[in-house]
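tokens incoming
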């Protein structure tokens, strides 16, 4: 019987980003069926996979989680009912496997009897029968190394199945894992997907999604009442239910136009000095509220009555945490308020989101990010989102120093060290834009700039120049997005 493993789970098993496996499947190197891979195929391609070396996998996961400011993947048990259902499914599969084994034992007994009969009636020579039986016993007694590896891989995959469930979204084909007692909504947002929602506590009904295949179970009470027609059509509330086993749901992901403008009062978690002329404000939304926005968008922040539009520098997958970068110009009244008048736990109003500098989630092209000076904030947001989604086969960040130099370099170096599909290239200040673009286009690691999606952020003149130079070198207009960050 074929044992199929979803690509996301396989990525965790063999310690590769999902985008790398997707590219292998597209290139025909890895045979996959509906986003799933057969166990034998895994061992053919990764014969040396060291399943016992979980420590190294966990280390990479931890660096990624710390770097993305995400809560680490929790090794928590799922809800008791979910756990019971998953164990029941595994129990049924185990019983079926035992049944098949019993049947094979009977067939083997029958074969041995037939062979003895063939010797007795002289239809087979005794030497042939003896050799055959010896070979047969040897094979049964000592499974070969590849079978042991197969069993080990299967056992690990089965444990993963109990601890987590795989959810695939149709029609987009994106997928995410539900860990511990997470709801579908929490897990989807954690994975960087823009699932629609409103209250996130079972009141508004905006998180409705349709179950195409699989079962869900309620893990939070909800006041919103699903109509009889909704229930009949398989609708559920993603903020109140979780997946029992692997699941397929139908839900349209949010785009820029779908997200309502929101006003929230946040509190300052920390103020981090990034350099001589810039600070990062780390904000926290109230417990029952989080800002719905897409990576790369901008937010208006208000401090003591003064407002400013700033790009988000974090990722919506960071749950209630919001990061923005603010210039520290002592001649500017707003900046002085941040520098001199703001402390941990102070209130900061936020309104938004605004702008459409967001990733094209539907594209599977490699991503090139270009950031100059303060343009780093929205690019960092896109980078964290792209890493969270594990969608792009490769991501390269070209960063050009602004007046205040390069900051958060260690963060980028930790990404580059931990993730095979991410590259970071820094340029000092002072290069002409044409010269920089030439360097990027000639970068030997990029096969051709025309096959990439390019996102550039910096002052308006810089972005316009980058756009013009890349267009002249064959980048289609639809594959470039830019934002003016002064
Ligand atoms: S988000 Fe409001 S009911 Fe789920």
């Amino acid at each position: 019987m074929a044992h199929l493993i979803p690509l996301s789970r396989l990525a965790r098993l063999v310690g590769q980003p999902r985008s790398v496996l997707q590219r292998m499947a597209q290139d025909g190197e890895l045979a996959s069926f509906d986003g799933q891979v057969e166990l034998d195929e895994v061992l053919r391609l990764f014969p040396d996979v060291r399943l016992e070396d979980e420590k190294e996998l966990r280390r990479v996961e931890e660096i990624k989680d710390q770097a993305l400011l995400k809560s680490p993947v929790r090794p928590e048990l799922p809800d008791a009912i979910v756990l019971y259902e998953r164990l029941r499914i595994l129990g049924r599969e185990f019983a079926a496997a035992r049944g098949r084994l019993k049947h094979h034992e009977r067939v083997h007994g029958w074969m041995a009897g037939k062979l003895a009969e063939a010797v007795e009636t002289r239809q087979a020579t005794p030497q042939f029968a003896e050799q055959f039986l010896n070979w047969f016993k040897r094979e049964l007694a000592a499974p070969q190394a590849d079978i042991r590896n197969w069993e080990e891989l299967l056992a690990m995959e089965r444990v993963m199945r109990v601890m987590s469930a795989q959810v695939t979204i149709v029609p987009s084909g994106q997928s995410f894992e539900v860990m511990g007692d997470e709801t579908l909504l929490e897990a989807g947002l954690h994975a960087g997907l823009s699932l629609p929602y409103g209250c996130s506590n079972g009141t508004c009904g905006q998180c409705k999604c349709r179950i195409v295949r699989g079962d869900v179970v309620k893990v939070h009470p909800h006041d919103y009442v699903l109509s009889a027609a909704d229930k009949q059509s398989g609708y559920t509330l993603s903020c109140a239910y979780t997946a029992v086993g692997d699941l397929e749901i139908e839900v349209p992901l949010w785009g820029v136009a779908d997200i309502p403008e929101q006003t929230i009062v946040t509190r300052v978690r920390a103020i981090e000095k990034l350099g001589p002329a810039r600070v990062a404000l780390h904000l926290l939304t109230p417990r029952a509220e989080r800002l719905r926005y897409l990576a790369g968008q901008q937010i208006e922040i208000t401090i003591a009555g003064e407002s400013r539009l700033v790009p988000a520098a974090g990722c919506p997958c960071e749950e209630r945490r919001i990061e923005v970068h603010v210039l520290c110009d002592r001649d500017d009244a707003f900046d002085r308020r941040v520098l001199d008048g703001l402390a941990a736990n102070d209130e900061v109003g936020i309104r938004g989101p605004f702008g459409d500098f967001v990733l094209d989630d539907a594209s599977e092209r490699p991503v090139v990010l270009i950031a100059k000076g303060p343009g780093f904030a929205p690019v960092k947001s896109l980078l964290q989102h792209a890493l969270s989604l594990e969608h792009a086969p490769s991501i390269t960040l070209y960063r050009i120093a602004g007046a205040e130099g390069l900051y958060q370099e260690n963060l980028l170096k930790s990404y580059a060290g931990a993730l095979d599909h991410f590259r970071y290239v820094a340029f000092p200040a002072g290069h002409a834009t044409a010269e920089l673009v030439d360097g990027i286009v000639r970068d030997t690691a990029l096969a051709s700039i025309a096959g990439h999606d390019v996102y550039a952020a910096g002052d308006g003149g810089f972005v316009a120049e980058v756009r013009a130079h890349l267009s002249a070198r064959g980048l289609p207009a639809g594959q470039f997005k830019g934002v003016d960050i002064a």
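note: The chain has four domains: 4-66, 74-107+136-253, 258-354, 367-484.
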